[in-house]
Write a structure and sequence with these properties.
Helices cover 38% and strands 14% of the residues. The chain has 165 residues and is of the alpha+beta class. The chain has one domain (4-148): 3-Layer(aba) Sandwich (NADH Oxidase), CATH 3.40.109.10. Bound molecules: flavin mononucleotide.
Length: 165
């Protein structure tokens, strides 16, 4: 009988779709670690400092102190391809924000809490949470905002075809 609350809790924190792979493999896991540890090193968070990691993760849930928090939903009838369209839509929101001097941080961190969030934002049963997004003005000299993520070279993920061959 005691396991019932735990089960309910697990149901409450289900993602509506897999944002991350079920199983992390190289090279993606390596890049994820490089980014994650790069950020934590900058913030002075060492391996095993779970409380500090948790506190940093929790910053998501106050939208990093941004004045506006956005939640994005999609009609559940749409197919997986529509998430491609939706990604472009999100990027357009982000680019439009930059054009107006604003900054954004898209946030998949909210996805585990979809079942809790959706009723709060008045979403219907037919809607699925895609992600959240912070919108506001970044503090450029805040330590966390000095972190620059590395980029793969174009050649590393492009297969160039020689039309003469
Ligand atoms: C779809 C999507 C979801 C993201 N979710 C989060 C998130 O939940 N929390 C967070 O701090 N950053 C999140 N990020 C932002 C990345 O961490 C951000 O891209 C990174 O801070 C560095 O930016 P850049 O690599 O795009 O330059 C997300 C980015 C995207 C595109």
């Amino acid at each position: 009988m005691r396991s019932a609350p735990t089960l309910n809790l697990a149901n409450d924190y289900q993602e509506a779709y897999d944002y991350y792979p079920e199983k992390w493999v190289s090279p993606y896991i390596d890049r994820r670690r490089e980014n994650g540890w790069g950020l934590y090193n900058l913030l002075g968070i060492a391996k095993g400092e779970k409380d500090k990691m948790h506190a940093q993760q929790q910053r998501n849930f106050c939208f990093f102190d941004a004045p506006v928090g956005l939640m994005f939903t999609i009609d559940k009838v749409m197919g997986r391809g529509s998430l491609i369209d939706y990604g472009m839509f999100l990027q357009n929101v982000m680019v439009a924000a930059r054009a107006r001097g604003l900054h954004t941080c898209p946030q998949a961190a909210w996805n585990s809490f979809a079942n809790i969030i959706l009723p709060h934002i008045g979403a219907g049963e037919d809607e699925m949470l895609v992600c959240g997004m912070s919108l506001g003005w970044a503090v450029p000299d805040a330590l966390i905002n000095t972190f620059v993520t590395p980029r793969e070279s174009v050649d590393s993920f492009t297969h160039w075809c020689d039309s003469a061959a």
